[in-house]
Structures are given as structure tokens and as C-alpha cells.
Amino acid sequence: MDPCQWATPSTFLLLLLITTLSSWTARSEEDGGSQWDAWGPWSECSRTCAGGASYSLRRCLSNWNCEGLNIRYRTCSSVDCPAEAGDFRAQQCSAHNDVKYQGQYYEWLPIYNDPDKPCALKCLAKGTALVVELAPKVLDGTRCYSEALHMCISGNCQVVGCDQQLGSSSKEDNCGVCSGNGSTCRLVRGQHKSQGSPNKLDDTVIAVPYGSRHVRIVLKGPDHLYLETKTLLGQKEENSLSSSGIFSIGNTSTEFQKLPGKEILRANGPLAADFTVKIQYVGKADSIVQFFFYQPIIHQWRETDFFPCSVTCGGGYQLTSAECYDLRSGRVVSDQYCHYYPENIKPKPKLQECNMDPCPASDGYKQIVPFDHFHPLPRWDSNPWTACSSSCGGGAQLRTVSCVDEDINGQVSSVEEWKCMYRQKFPVVQPCNLFDCPKWLTQEWSPCTVTCGQGLRYRVVLCIDHRGLHAGGCNAKTKPHIKEECIVTVPCYRPKEKVPVEAKLPWYKQAQELEELLTVSQEPSFIPQPWAPCSKTCGAGEQNRKVKCQVLLSFSQSIEDLPDDECGGAKPQTEQACYTGPCSGETVEYDFEEADLLFPNLKGVDELYDWHYEGFTECSESCAGGVQEAVLVCLNKQTSEKVAESLCIIHRRPAQLLKVCNLGPCPPRWEFGKWSACSSSCGVGLQTRDVFCLHLLSRESDQTVILGDKNCPQTKPDHVQACNQFDCPPDWLSEQWQQCSQSCGGGVQIRRALCKQRMADGSFVDVAEERCLTPKPGIHRVCGGVDCPTEWLASDWRQCSTTCGDGSQRRDVICRKIGRDGIPIILNNSDCSALPRPPVLRSCSFPLCGRLNRKEFKPSHHQGPDILGLRKVYVQLKKERKLLFTTGGQAYLLPKTSVLIRCPVKRFRKSMITWEKDGKHLSSSPHVTVTQFGYIKINHLKPVNIGTYTCVAGFVRENFVIKIIGRNNKLIESQSSKQEAEIGNGISNEALSLKDKYLPRLKVNGSKVDKNQFFINHHGQYDRLILKLLEIIGWSRDSLDSQESKGSIEKDFTSLEDSMESIIPLTYVIDQGRLDEINKAIQQQTDDLKDVYATRVIGQLVAAISKGQSDGNELKQKHGEKNSDTSSVKPSLHKITTMDHRVSKLSSMEWSSSKEFTPPSKESITAPIILQKSSDRGSPRSAEVIADVGHAILLIDRTSKLVLRCEAEGNPKPVITWTKNGQALKYNHRIEILPDKALQILVPNESDVGIYTCTATSPAGFDSLSSKVAITGKPAMRVSKHDLVNFNSTSVRVDVGSVVKARLMANITILCQVTAVPGPSISWKKEQGPLDGNIQVSQNGDLTIINATLANQGLYSCHASNTLGHVTATTSLLLQDPPRVSPELKDLVPQFALTGSGVHTIFATVPGKKEVLSSGSSVLVGCPIKGHPKASISWLHNGKSIKQGLGQKYHILASQHILQILIITKGHGGNYSCIALNEVGNLTLQVTLEIADYKWLVGELIPCSAPCGNKGLQFPKLKCLRDNSIEVDKSHCKREPQPDIDTVPCNIRDCSPRWIVGSWSRCPQHCGRGIQRRRVSCQKVTAAGILLDLSPGFCAQSGKKPADSQACDRKSCSVWSTSNWGQCTSHCVGLRLGVQRRHVFCQSQNGTKLPSHQCSSDIRPLSRRNCTSDLCTAQWHSSSWTPCTSSCGNYGFQSRRVECVHLQANQQVRDQFCSWKERPVNWQRCNITPCEKSECRDTTRYCEMVKRLKLCVLPQYKLRCCKSCRDV
Q1: In sequence order, what are the beta bridge partners of 1014?
Q2: Which of 165, 295, 657, 1505 is in the most buried spot, having the most CB atoms within 10 Å?
Q3: How deeply is 1516 buried, as exposed, middle or buried, from its count of CB atoms within 10 A (0-12, 13-18, 19+)?
Q4: Backbone angles phi, psi at 1028, to 5 degrees
Q5: How confident is the model at residue 1388 (pLDDT cuts 50, 70, 90)?
Q6: Local structure of 1055: helix, strand or coil
């Protein structure tokens, strides 16, 4: 019967009263005085990330209005959203894209930061100015403003703090720390005033480091700001900031405003990269840059863990320290980094007690940990703090502090306090236990224990301490109650219980267990930890917990673990049984008495809960056939509420119920395949995939149709994408092989191999070869490996048969061929018979014999031609434009000198003179001219001109050798010799004449013929002598190199060498015979004397040349002679003369200067010898200096007189002469010769610096000796006063002191050449800061910048100093970049990204590319060029100006980088060029546009979309035609309007009946064999689309009916089995109680043992139980305590004996028989009271042993044994 049928008015009032009372009882205590019900549960979060809102409701229990709100909110889901999640407000706007607004669809974009309605959903229609409020409220959790955490809740903007809490006032400090105090960062502010100059393009303002916040940069003036960023991974980026807006720079949002005369840069941060703020100078006026930001303190102190304890037992201490920690790298660094910040205060060390357990081995004495003894400074020492005056709520502690000193033996003694004043004195009083006292805290009430009538409810009451932990210590008298009665207003269907029903076990046990938790106090006590979860999730299990003996250390307020015997009283239990309810799916037999006791509410469960279907799930598929599954829930029959499935009987669960759904075909959608492999492993590659429009008709038959792209309304996914877009490692790039040097007979091919790096934009960059790690590919290879055809080979013409009149000449002709190995083979003449044979005879003519002068017609031994050569050696010492030489000699010349070589001949016509170089015929070229007058001219000598030049006059030949002096006095090697060394001997050179080429290694009829090599003459016999000569005269090649690098730029020489070079002869001319004698004399010396001898002899040669030079000059001044042989001054030189006895003067001079040899002598005549004395007269530092020649002389600026003595011996007496720097000395009133032939210089100055040579000359020979005179002074630096502009070369060398303009990535060397006495020290500085990492400074002071970048721009100063002064020169370096291709130009990428799908985007390229476009479309042509400075760009159409070619039908965008054509016509076809030009160079990119017309063509019908039913349709196929003839891809016609397509229904007929099967049900048995079932039905679809269920007979033609049931084999059934109980063991668990054990194992029904987890569903039988045992009649017995070891202090303890004694025998037994009971403690502290300080007495009975073991030196023993150790 329904209870409503018998309800009367009186019962209704009674029920209303009960309901009211129940509601009052159900409210929480906090709402007891109000009329609100308790708050309900929190709702789900409105967002899953980025901060959402959740709400809770309550109801008003009064008929009148309640005060307050019925809803409350809180924040939730504060985790960050993934990057692909998108903006929450944008998602809400896009949800309206499918809803028409005013009859039209729009794509809606969000409107942010509306000042009037921040919580309204206002959206902007894309592409229009239409703004609409689509909803009055945004969803809860949406941010009110984009830059704040405040969120919209119920349409109102609520304040959210940085702690993500509603209504919170917490704010981030300037460092970004929530509720921080600003100590983790520092404020940096200031200003920078620009100082623009013509030499500076930009300047660095300030570097803002990674992590900085609130950055604000303001520029006031005409200049421009730009940024350089560098991430932690080293990625660099440059940003020009050309327009206002918000940009992502260095992964940081940055706002830039460009105003008239002002630029503002803001970034809230934190910065994700290092920012370098720079200023680019634009105008002449100065600009001011103000900066403001908060810089993070990345180095902070971090406290370390405690160090090891000072002792191992008995009570010690341990300390902490502090280390400097780098927050950026996460590493510990040196302390100096933390000292850099004044805000950082190093934490003081912390101290705590440790190892407080007694030491059993030494009866309580400490075991000291060994340590190294040292003598520290006096220190403050303190006694322990007294106990706190209060256990909580605030108290005080006291201690005594004294200054102590510790000697080397560890003896500690008190000293005066002033000795410790270097450190702050320890405090003597401190507060303690400032934390709040524990308080009671109540939790919410549990549900009522009954579902009807009267019951009980419980709550947990906790004692919470100041840490928020449940620790105990509250006043038990004030504890709130944990249980009370409750009434449920649902009528009961059984007799009412007499007493309220108790709670279920888990609730009741939880309330009891939490009461049992105890707090840690200063007395050792057992503290139980919370119980672990039950070992079983259902059924009976076990619970465990840990119980520790703990004590609270008062001085440190820390908790320490102690041994169990330190705690008194019984130890709480550590394990107990638990039960979490019956397991689902099984029937459990209960002991009803036990069940009633533990679970009184489990009766009647079967009739209270049952299974019920509740609708169906959503269809598994939205189209093409899916499945729906019936939802099965467990319901309470009385309340019809859903409950947990475990309350329903599992074996009564109904079978699964399925039905088909959504059988219609799916709408067309885009399908795409997998991306292909990347086309490039680095640089930039491409990936492609197939994308097509797919129409799915039936999922069961997997029937699909591919349609045209227009049938898929969604945007077509990309079918191509970039990949592997990062820089490649440097690698070799080989060019194509050049043409073979010979088509046959063995040639060589050459190619270039360059080290290049492919960048992420696809371009290639040249890098240094050492950066390519792989082996360099070969650059030479042999080619032309075939035999050459036969040919005639003619020799040179022989001498004419007559010397006057007409005659004849003959030559030899042979037949030969070149083999494949390059070796010539002589053949029979018949083998060349098919070829025209060269003539072997020709006429020759001379002047007629009758016309010869009788005087000339004299008998002569040389009637043939004769060449008048000169055997001279020429050495060029200074730059000359042109030099004239005569063949027959050798010349050592400087580069870039023009040379004319004459060949004077007799009896031969000059017009018939021919020239050869290195044995090869020489003909005229732009660089070398062979004139008809018999001489040759070479313009601007280069290394290629090195070699032997041979003048050929008939059969007479004369050679002239040219060599070039290179760097560091080295001779430059000929390029031809290098090439021959690389190619090898087996490859012939085409430049050789036939005779020179093939005469070596001849084969006659296949056999090799020995023949002398045609040309062998290296002419290197004078090289060593000439190099030694250059070394002696002090020629500096370094200065020459710097001149060459500057080209035509004028030099400014300021060093001492300038004055010396001005008086050195232009060219030395030396007889070859004299050099031959010197060379021969050097070779006769021993090896150890050769170098010394050569230096001496060649020095004499230099002196002689200098003397002859001066004499020659004087002679020429008198007679006006001119040198006809060379443009240089030629001294009058002679061969070395000898005496009558044929003794070489060279030898006699050498012997005379050596002590080891005795020179040949003659009594009457001796050669001159200058005496070289070992000591000087006078100090160089004195005012007057007297020195002997042969020593270096160093003068000071205060020297008044220098006397240089020169004493010579010889017979006859030699004549003494002086020269300076090889020139005759000019005498005046300061410089004169004294009577003793000494040289005197009064008041020496800078003009007197040089090499002074004394020469002693007599008819017997000469001798000379030199001294170098120098004056100390400040350094002199060689500087350049002219600017250098070189954008073509990748290697630039220049002297310091000028402005250098070069290209980016060039190698730039700035020379700093300094002379000074004493030697200077050289250093480099850069104005903006330290030298960059790509800058190297060599040992000689040169600065080299490798691969220069924009960061290397600036002022570089070379500073040279010595003890007397210093000098500085500065070079300004400006770097520029020629225009180059850059596809990722920042001006182009945003512009291209904004274009729609109907606009073509094309990049112009250097080679040019061709694009075919359709008429009427739009196109953007990009010119991706960048350079430094920015290049100006102009556009051309078909070679004409873009304006002339197109008129006004175009637009130029993005600073000339983009050409836009909105509507393309046929007239727009042709070639387009963009030309970029800046100061460095220019670049042209091209693209060709071909305009075509496209149109659609309707074709045949595609197959039907369905085989039957009413869904079948046919579409006509569309084709795209180009120019009405060629079918092309449909994408070309996508801009053309498609023709109307009519769909044709097809296959409209009934489908054949077919079997429809459902899913299998679950196996009903959890073990053993069971049966699964499924639904099988016969259905068909009619032509009208109706689904009909038919009888099975209709589906007979569709095949056999599928099975509707099948066997399901689950695991075999398993049960627990046990063995018999064993004997009662002696393991005692109580008085007279032992333990019995048995085996419990899992096995199948057939007796097979199984793993235990297969029986886990059943209750496991007990494997242990208690039993009665007479062996367990033993208890602990304790003796009396021993006397305390100390009467006062902190070290006293006492012990006692504890034994296990059998009660009946009264005898001691093993401890295990008493283990059932806790063992009493056998050790405790005692007499813990302060000792009187003035009393000196022993506090332990072991003091005699301490004294005997000499332990009184240790402070801890001396303190406890004061009296015994007093006399020690």
C-alpha cells in the first residue's frame, strides 16, 4: 500500500514536525544561530586549466528572507593550459560561427578589455567593423582583462589575487614573487646620452638580462631604438622595431610605440632572453635614452644540510653552512657571486643536538670523531638554553655566554671578552615556544546511520597544533562531543529499533583512532602514526602503522627519534584487522552474530537495491552506422536514487542491450595521409602528404567515395610543410670538374672544394675550412686516359749555313704519338704518312758579304750571334715603379714593381730575338709584353712572374732570373712550381713546346731512351747569401706587407725606421763573382762556424757597398753621370782583391777575428784589423758616454756627449772612416772626428739614432765594425691617417688609427706596430666593453677579428707603454652587409600571413622562377632581400620601370619589399625584377608570370553513393581546363564560380534483408565455463528509408544466421585450502599464550596449486592462532636503580638490571620468552639540575679512571671531573 493513501491530517503535521526537527539537527554548528541550511558540495570546475570557478549552494530554511547569499564561489584548475588550447574568450566567440546573425554567417573574434562591460561577450566579425554583444555574460572563469587575474563570475568581475584565490589581496612584488618583499631583484634605472659621430652608426645603451621585469625604455630625440636578443641556448635575433605594435621578441611579449620625436619600449616580462638595447644614429642632434627595469638576483644564498655529528654517541652537535646558488643554471657557484649583491645576507650557521644515545661500549662516555687540530681565534662559548618558561603561547629561555680560547691540545680556557669582540656576542635570552597552543577542531558530521527513522551521526574532533598537524595536547575538558542523535524523515517499513543504530565500522573506527593520536612532548613517549589503508579493498584484511619513540628538542623545536627502551609505558599496537565491506560478485556467508554486532544495517540489502535500465548511451558514431548501449544502474527501490553498483547483487545483473543508430552516410570530410620523409636532414626541407575529400557511405561495408574538393566545406588542410628548419653543420661543397687539360695522353681535371654551411633559410654561407670536420674531397683527378693520334714532331731550326748573305737552315722531323700514360713513343715515318709533313729546310739571310766594312771583317773566333750579358745580382730594397735590367744576372725584387729586361746582341737582328720562361716559349699577354726590339716588359710583378727568362738569339741563349721577396725576409715560391708539385710528373703541361714536352722520357718504338732534361736551372745558389744580407741591413718585411694591403692609400710613417729607410739605397748591385768567392769561403768553414762567418763577411760586404754607394753619389754629382743599366744607384764594386801571395782577403779577415786560428802573416804588410774591446768606458746613464765600437749603446735624454772609439791595427796604417746607416757621415758643429779618429756627438738627439760603422782601409784590405746607437723614450706608433673602405675582400689588413669600413663576416686585422726603447707592452681595448669571443690578439700586438659581426662594430684602441711613457691610437670599425637573399625577412612574413586563400604569394629568386596564374586573381611578389645598411629596392617590368610597364595597376608594400597586383590581366604577364642597392653592393631577383584562363567543365556522372535504400546520389564530375584545352588540377579553378550541379537520385530500391548482430554480453560466471549471448535480428531498409525488422526466414539468402550464443571459458575456479595446525610454539604472545601456525594455499578444484592472487576474491583463512603453552610462564624482572653518576648538570644517568625470569622455576631464561611484553628500560637520566658555578667537584664516579687515562685535557671530561683534573 502507498503510504500516501493512509496519511491523515494529523499524520501530515507529525511528519512536518519531524522534518523540521531533522533539518535543524542536520545543520552544522556554525550555522546554528542562522536560518540557512548547510552548504552543499562544490560543483565541477568551469574550466580544466588556466583558472576556473566552482560554486556551492545552500537553501534558506525560513519563510522569510535569510541574510546573506545562497551561493559561494572559489577558484579551481589553476594549472597552465597547453599551447594548443587557445584563448577561452575566443572559444566562446567562435562557438557562434555556426549561428546566423541577421541572416548571415560570420567568423567572430573576441573583443578584450571593454571598460564598460568586461564580463559581456562582445565579438568582432572578421573582415568587418561589426561588433556585437553575443551574450550578456561570459562563462564563469573568463578573465575580465587580458593583463590581470580577475575573473568573471555570474557576469560580475571578481578580484583574484596572485595566489589564485577569490577576494585575495595578494599581489606580486616587483620581482614576480607572490606576496614577496622585493628582495629577489634590484631596481636598475638611469639614462644614456648619445654622442653621434660620422664614424659611428649605432651604440649600445644597456644590456637587460634574462628574467628581468617591468622593462621600460624611452628614447627622446631623432635616433632609433633596436634590439638584439640571445636566448640561454645561444640563439641570437635582431629586431629593427620599424613600426608600433605588440611583438614577440625573444619569446617575450614586447610593446613598441613610435611617436614624433619619441620611442617607447615596454615589456612586463619576465624576459625569456638577454636583451641588448641599442640606438641607431639617424640625425645630427643628440638623443637621450631613459631605462628602468627590475633585474633578478640570480645568485642567492642557500642553506646546506647538517654536517656529520661531532660525536658518534653520548650527545654531540652538528652545524649547517651556506652556499651560493645560481638560480639560472641550477648549480652551486663561488661565494663571490653572492657577495656582489648587497641585498644578499649570508645565513648564519645553525646548530642542533645529535647522537644523544648513550655509548654502551664506554659506559656513557662519548666517542670523539677524529678531526684535524688547529689553533682557532678566541670565540664565544655558550651554555645550553634553560627550559622554556612556557610550553606554548610564548615563553623565554636563558643561558650564559663567555669568551673562550682553545689551545693546540684542545684545552679550552676563559679569556677577556674584548678578545672576542671581532664577532657579535651571542644573545643570552631568547623567546621560545611562540607558537599557538593546540586547539580543538571539529569536522563535518557524517551521514545519519539509518535511511529512515532515528539514528546516530558522528564527526571527527581533532586537536590541531600550530603546524596544522593532529598532534594532541588539548584540554580534554573542553573537547566537543563526537556523537549525537539524528532523525531521517523517511518512514520505516520494519519495527522501530529501541536504540539508535550505531555507525558503520569505518566511521566509528576513524573517530576513535584520531582520538588516540598523541602529541610529541619534551618527555620521550610513543607516538603512533596514522593507520595505513586496509590490505584488502573488500572483505577482511589487515592494517599496519608505525609507532615511534620520539622526543621534542626544546632549543631547536625539532622532533628526534629515540630507541623504544627510552619510552615508558605500553607501546600501542602496530597491526589490526580491518573490513571494508563485502566484495562484489560473490555471496558471502556471514556469522550473523558477528555481522549484527559489526554491521547492523546490512540486513535487507537484497530487497532494498536492484538493477534498472536508464536510457541509452550516445551513438558511437555520428553517421554511417553506430551502436548505442543501454545504461544499467543500481537503484534504491524506496528512494529511486542511484547508488554504488556494489550494493546490487552482481549475478542478477541483466544482459547487455544494444541497438544500431545513425545509419545515414557521413557528410564529405577531408582525409589526409602521413607526411612524407623530410627532403633534407637540415637547412630547410619539405614534407608532403595526400589530401582528398572523402564521402563515407557505410562504416560496416567500409564503402567510400572520393569527391571533388568543393564538396568539403571545411578549409583544406595543408599538403606541404617545412621541416628540419635548422642550420646544417659545415660540410664540403664540391663544384663541377673543369674541362680536362688534355683530351688524350693523360691530362688533369681540377675543381674547387669549398667549406660551406647551409643555413635554416636555405642559403649557403662560406666558413673557415677547419670547421669542416670531414676529409676534404679531392680537387685533382687524372683524365684523358687514351692514346693520342700520331703526329709529326719537329726540332728547333739549326744555325744558318752562312754568316753573311743568303743561306739555309735545317731541322729534324720524327713521327711519334703520346701514349695514354703521357709518355711519347717514336714511330716509323710511315705511320705518319697520312699527315702533312712539316718542312725540314728553309732559307735564311744576313747582310751582304760585299757591304761589310773592312774594319769589321777581321778574323774572329765568334762569327755567330753574341749576347752581351752582365753577371750581376740585383737586390731591391725600397719600392720603385720601374726598374731596368740587362740579361745575364739575377734580381731579388719587391712585388708590384714593373721590370724591363734588355737583351743586347751582336751579329743578330733584334726583331728575330725570342724569349722563353722556364723553358717555355713566351709570347705577349696583358701582363707581359715581348717587344720587336728584343726586350720584354713585365707590369707589376706577381708570384706568377717568378722564374728564369731566357733570351734566344739563334743558337745563343742568355738567362735572367727573377725572384720576389715576401714576408719575413722569405722568398715567395713560384705558383707554377706549386701546381707542378700537386699535379705530378706524369701529367704534361700544354704550355710546353713540343720539344720541351716530349723529349724527356722518350720511347723509341716502345723502348725508353735516356736523354738529358731539356731545362734544369734553379738558380738558387745566392738565395742564402741574399737572405742573410737582408737580415743584416735590418729590412722589415712587415712594414712592406702593410703597405701592400693598403694599395694606393698614403702611409704615415712615424717610427724610427722611416728615417733609416730614407737613406738606404734603392737597389744593391753586386758582382756574381764576388758572391761566388764569399760562398766558396763560407763552405770551407766548419758547420758550427758557418753562420758566424757568413754574418761577419756579408756585414763587411754591406759596409763596402755602402761606401761605394756614397763614393758613387759624390762622383755622379761631380760629373753628372747616369746609370745606363738600372734605375737604381749602382755602386762601384770590385771583386775581392788578394795580395801577391794569393791569400784571399776574406780569409785573412776571418782568421784575424778568431782566437782559434792564426792568420797567414807577412812581416812587412798586414791587413787592417779593428780591435773589438769587451768593456765600455762610461755608464750609459751618465751625462758623458765613452764606448768602443762593436757594442750597442743605449742613451738617455740627458746625455750631453757620446764618444765612440775605433782602434785599428795594420801595416801600412789603415785609414779610419765613419758611416751612418750605410751612408757617409755628415759632420757639423755637433758631430766631428777627434784626433784619435774617435767619433764625438754632442747632445745626442733622435736624429742621431742609427747604426754607426767604423771602416779601416789600407792597400792590404779593409775591416769594419758597427755599433747601434739608440735613445730611450716613449713608444712611437705607426698609424694610418686615411680611412679604408673595402667591401670586396674577405680579408682586410690595416694600420691602427683610421676608420675601417668592411663587409660582414670578413677577417679584419688591425696592425699595431710600435717601436720603443725599452720595449713596450701592447694591449687592446674596446670602447663598449671587453673584446668579443671572435677576437684574437697576436704576440706582436696585431688584433684580428674572425668572421666579423655587427656586435664587433665600435672603437678599438691600441695602447703601448713603457717606463718612459705611453701612446694610444684608435680605429673605428664599421661593418656593412651587401644585399642578400633572406626568405624570412620580418617585413614580408606578417604581410604574407594576412593574405587570404585567394591570393598567390611568390618569392623572387636570383636565377628567376616561372609562375602560371589565372586571370582575375591577386598576387603578392616578395623581394626577400636584406642588407646593412638597409638596401633601397626598385621594381622593373620587362626591363622597364614598374610605373611605365603597369601604370597605376599595382601597389608597393612593406618598404618596397612586396609588389601587389590586385586583379591580374593578360597585360600583367612578363618578367619582374627587384633590384636592391646599398653602399656595399647590389642584387637582382627575378620572377616570370604567365597569365592563363581557367574554367570549369561538367563531365560524366560518378558512381552512385549507395547501393540501395533512399540515400543514393550521383554527382557529375567537374574538370578544370586551362585555355579551354588542357585539363589541369582543380585547384587552379578554385577562384572560378562553379557551375550548378544537379544531383541525381540513384539505386532507390529496397535493400536486401541482412543479419544485424549486437555485441556479446559479459560472461556470467567469474570462473569455470559460461555462456555469452548477443542479439541477432533480420532487418532491411526500404526505398523510403524505413528500417524493418523481419522474420529470420527473409535473411535466408543472406547466408547462415550468425550465432547468438557462445561458450566463454573463464579461469578455472579456485579455493583456499589449509594444512593441519602445527604444535604450539615457544614464541610467546602473552602469559601462557603461544602461537600455532598452518599452511594456507590456493588450489583449483582438481587439486592443482595456483597463485594466491587467483583466490583473492575469497576470504583467506587464518594461518596463525594463539594457543596455551606452559613455556610462556615468564616475565620481566627488574633490579634496583644504581646511584646517579652525577649529582647535577646534564650528564647524570643510572641503570638497572632487567632479566626474563620463569615464574615457576624462578630462574632466568632467554629474552624471547618475555617478548610478549615490553621490556622495561634499563637506563635513564637523573639529577638534571644546574650545578653551582663556583663549586668544583666531580660529578661522576669514573673520575679516577679519567685521571689515570690522562683524559683531563678533553673539555668534556675536565668539566665533569673538575676536582680530579684540577691539579693536572
Answers
A1: none
A2: 1505
A3: middle
A4: -65, -40
A5: low
A6: coil
